[in-house]
# Entry
Amino acid sequence: MKHEDHPMRKYLRPNKKMPTIWCSGCGIGIFVQSLVRAIDRIGYSKDDVVMVSGIGCSSRIPIYLDFNTLHTTHGRALTFATGVKLARPHLKVITIMGDGDAVAIGGNHLIHAAKRNVEISAFVINNQIYGMTGGQCSPTTPYRLKTTTSPYGNREAAFDVARVVEAAGAAFVGRATVYHTPLLDRLTEAALRKKGFAMVEVIAQCVTYSGRWMGLASAAEMMTWQRDNSVRVERAKEMSETELAGKMVIGVLTDRERPTYNEEYNELLAEESKV
Amino acid sequence: MKAVLLQGNEACAKGALAAGCRFYAGYPITPSSEIMEFMAREVPRLGGVFIQMEDESASLGAVIGASLAGVKSMTATSGPGFSVMQEHIGFACMTEVPCVIVDVMRGGPSTGLATQPSQADVMQARWGTHGDHPIIVLAPSSVQECFELTAKAFNLAERYRTPVIVITDAIVGQMREEVTLPEADMEIEVRPQPTVPPEEFLPYGDPGNCVPAMPAFGDGYRYHVTGLYHDVHGFPTTQSGEIDFLIRRLFSKICQASQHLQWFDSWYEHSETMVIAYGCVARSALRAVREVREKGLDVGLTKLKVLWPFMDATISGVLDNCRRVLVPEMNFGQISREVERVNQGRCEILTLNKVDGTALTPPEIVRKLEEIHS
# Structure
């Protein structure tokens, strides 16, 4: 298929030079396709989509996509996204962050965005490493893994991003890997459609760094690792903690109804005007 | 005209609303919190958005996001919060997003003196964020000026697409004075809008006056905004020509603005000794000048309302017509060094620096002036 014929071609910016900055074998591209497919299925107008990102490899995604795009500072994408959503509520606001971005430097913003339940669809692309800066240990780097900043092994437990966001109050929380593409497609669409703060943790391979540190030599090996270390949430319910140790639970982890920040604020305005 | 009794912080908030501000995001901090409290009460009544964020970085992030969505936005803070905001001040400079930040100065460094005044953030307002960048900083010295200069800050932010900082202090921010509010709506400026269709639009080009048009997100002009160096399309670049073009345009923009930003008040111009002061110190200085003149000393005052870009032309005019200058400040001499730079050896430059957390009083300035003239 010539690239002009690709059904998702219309979502790529006509005036942005290619190729992308991502390494060959990177998992980010699989997510980008999943995201634009979901946007296409839902049928948003490109003018109504605002895509906000932080700093890191995955935060380069908005550059290539033909929406209103905002590439912000490290960790703080959700704060900008909050401002956009409250100022112009009809816009569909999507944020894309990496694991170091969303969970380390931006951890407090992530928790507060979930607590407020601002209607933002947030995607945390978790490759378990700081890729852009050269393979340093991140908050989701596996325990004992050797990286450039944990040369004797990482002695901190990895963050469970999905559970943190769930506890903070998000309306929707899901996790998928880029290996499980049909699931990723479903979760991405569900997060976009969700009224309220929706977060999907997307496990994606960094072949250049996490693959090297984990002893996985190719994208295929890393995606096989994703397959072998994931458990569907429905199955996980029947497994013991010991059986689940080291496994990633994937699927819809939380889906609940909560008034969004915009709804609360509109109610406040209505009540105030009666006084 | 309507006369009312207002607090400096309240007047900043009122000025912002008069200029069309309809989005406030902030984090409480003494001695600026009354601005936030006023906005929490009044912004919803005007149909705008008020939100309390988790920190000052988040506050300015939300302000920038709201401004990109087309709504005039602001935040307010003090020393420690101003430090936390610096990263996003740089982002707003680089991406040219209009916004207003009020910094009510308290004693620093660090937590310093939460309830006591200082003027020690003058250089931080200029250079606090990393990298070369231009900035506009206004300095009210009365409650009336808190209203007027905060309103003007919004117009400047829109006209030049830049963050504008209003720097007050714990005295000016907390004091109450009679203020005359304009009865009619003030003149409100809005950011330039594109005159070409989306496919011809260059979000970071130079239309001739260095200020590109800024459609809001959702207006049909889909473009990219990034804190990275970017080309005229907004896309990241590492090409030296494109980098040079951008940073020089950003500086030219504010440099041109500087011609129109010679805002000052003068008393007894062309005196033998001129006092140059700003903020709360300008109040003490005026009283001191009047007092020593009664004793026969030839002393005048120039009160600065714009601190950055520094008013080289105004200061040069003062220096051309006096023998010496006294710069009293509640810091170790942040503006006096700028006066020295402009002076180039023309006059004698004297300083009076108070850094103990209390106001620089009229008697202290009188003493210094008498000592100079003895």
